[in-house]
Design goal:
Blueprint (H helix, E strand, L loop, with lengths): L7 H12 L4 E4 L1 H8 L7 E4 L3 H7 L4 E2 L7 E5 L2 E7 L1 E4 L9 E4 L3 H6 L9 E2 L5 E2 L4 H7 L1 E2 L5 H7 L2 H13 L2 E2 L1 H10 L8 H12 L6 H7 L26 H14 L6 H7 L4 H14 L7 H11 L1 H15 L3 H11 L12 H6 L5 H16 L6 H9 L4
Helix pairs in contact: 6-8, 7-9, 7-10, 11-12, 11-13, 11-15, 12-13, 13-15, 14-15, 15-16
């Protein structure tokens, strides 16, 4: 475990529970990361103590897990989630258990978890409980369900996307039987809320293997959001995009639009319940990618005028990732030049034109004319020259 030691506040929670006679263990992702030699970001604890007993032991803590019994314990300025050992049964909505029972057995608690690599526990004295072979699967680089994979996915359909997410994040393969169960149970993903699908997809897109998102599509995990699946052998390129949410979502949505899987990139981003800014910029950038991108500075300035800096940069970066075009460098050169591409940068304003006697629509039309003129001749963005053009006195 590369000598990774839990923080003092985490050890304090474990020792307090143990000292009162309640077995307590680190569990789940933090143990997986420790076995991999990676410093965990979050620390989760499971224990034989019931929620009311945890609340009594740690003043200032609060129940945050509803029926699951999770208690968020506060130690100074730090927070640790502590959950009683539990068993679950009946998953009518293929997402949440209908019945949760608190149990006294650690193995029973671990047996309900999704994958073997997440079904390990670590005692305060450093002993790993690994009843399902998670450590061996970590060494082999395999994602494998605890128990019967079909049952695990029937319980919680989101686990199928989680399997792909862990595969993409860790560079692991998915166990043969687990993968076959994903193919069989993929239609259950229709029960999932778009927000939960979005969160898993985003983690996949931001992983070292974002093309795994297209694997999720080909397996049918996103069928309820698509018109149809793309053809086989879709060219890879998502991994060449900057590891930024906007570019990765835009590139993915554009690919789905390009292959007729969705009506438009914009509609898909909206369906995924992404924030308004990502939808707006992603839709604009995808629209630019459907057109021949500019080949000269004037063309990029018109693009900037129409779509703005962020959407134009996103489109250029995506084009570079998919087609190795060098557009981002060209666009950055235009931006660095400081040349005018918007009315805000124009050396004259609407008030200047009104002072010349222009009125109503004529003001806007003249501003558009002057801006187009300056885009073609950037060195002429000078107040007196533009005013003379507007007045019709320029010789």
């Amino acid at each position: 475990m590369a000598n990774i030691i839990p923080p003092k506040y985490v050890r304090q929670v474990l020792v307090t529970l143990q000292g009162r006679g309640y077995p307590a263990f680190l569990v789940g992702g933090c143990v997986r990361d420790m076995v991999l030699g990676v410093q965990p970001h979050d620390w989760d604890i499971c224990t034989a103590a019931l929620p009311e007993q945890i609340l009594e032991l740690f003043p200032g803590s609060r129940l945050t897990g509803g029926e699951q019994g999770t208690v968020t314990v506060r130690i100074h300025s730090h927070f640790v989630e502590v959950t009683p050992f539990r068993a679950e049964s009946r998953y009518t909505d293929h997402r949440h258990p209908d019945l949760v029972q608190f149990v006294a057995d650690l193995t029973a608690d671990l047996s309900r978890r999704d994958f073997t690599i997440n079904a390990m526990a670590l005692s305060p004295d450093g002993i790993v409980s690994d009843p399902f072979g998670g450590a061996a699967d970590l060494r082999r680089g395999v994602i494998r369900c605890v128990g019967e994979p079909e049952r695990r996915f029937e319980e919680d359909a989101l686990r199928m996307l989680r399997a792909l997410r862990f595969s993409a994040k860790l560079g692991f393969s998915i166990d043969l039987f687990t993968m076959e169960a994903i193919r069989e149970k993929a239609p259950l993903c229709a029960h999932l809320a778009a927000e939960r699908v979005r969160d898993e997809l985003e983690k996949i897109l931001m992983s070292p293997a974002p093309e795994t998102a297209l694997e999720a599509v080909s397996l049918g995990l996103l069928d309820s959001f698509l018109h149809r699946r793309p053809p086989e052998n879709v060219p890879e390129g998502l991994g060449e995009l900057p590891r930024r949410e906007l570019e990765r979502w835009t590139g993915f949505a554009w690919l789905l639009e390009h292959y007729g899987c969705v009506a438009s990139a914009e509609s898909f981003l909206q369906t995924m319940r992404l924030d308004g800014r990502t939808v707006q910029l992603g839709a604009a950038a995808a629209g630019l990618m459907n057109e021949p991108l500019p080949e000269d500075a004037a063309g990029w300035k018109r693009c900037l005028r129409r779509c703005g800096i962020e959407a134009s940069l996103c489109a250029a970066r995506c084009a570079d990732g998919f087609w190795q075009t060098g557009h981002a460098k060209e666009l950055k050169s235009v931006l660095k030049s400081g040349e005018c591409f918007s009315l805000r940068q124009l050396a004259v304003t609407g008030n200047d034109l009104i002072a010349l006697g222009l009125q109503g629509r004529a003001v806007g039309e003249m501003l558009d004319f002057l801006l187009e003129y300056v885009i073609e001749y950037p060195e002429n963005n000078r107040r007196e020259l533009l005013l003379s053009l507007a007045a019709g006195t320029e010789e």
